Structure formats: C-alpha cells, structure tokens
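Box 3.1 A note on notation
Throughout this textbook, protein chains are presented in two layers. The first layer is the amino acid sequence; the second is a token string describing backbone geometry. Keep the layers aligned when reading.
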Amino acid sequence: MVGLSIGEKHFIQGGIPQDLRSDGRKWLTYRPISIATGNIPQANGLARVKIGATDVIASVKAELGKPTPFQPV
C-alpha cells in the first residue's frame, strides 16, 4: 500500500474546514451508486455494482452433474 506524501496530506487536511474532497464533492456527498442484476443470460447469477467510476461485475455459472469415483462430492 502506498502512503500519502506530506503535500497530499496537507491538501486533504486543508479541504476539511472547507467541506471539500479532492474530487470536488462535499464531505457528505456520495458518489452515484447503481446496482443491476441478471445482465448476462449465460450466467445463473450476476450482479453489477457501480460506485462513481468504479464498476464491479460478479457472476456465477453452475451445472448439476452426477459425481464420479474420480470426482466425489
């Protein structure tokens, strides 16, 4: 994990009394959030979460099958 430089710390600390974050938002303003499910028909389960510019997709694909002696349950 990379630490902050002294200049970055001063910049962030200077924004606290001004109620500003480094990206211009106020301290209690959240980034836009959206959640979607089932966007990929081939997946049995899917969720997509976007928070600001961060986009995360998680999916599950499952198939039922009979266990074999070489692949027990």
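The mean pLDDT is 87. Residues 29-61 form one domain.
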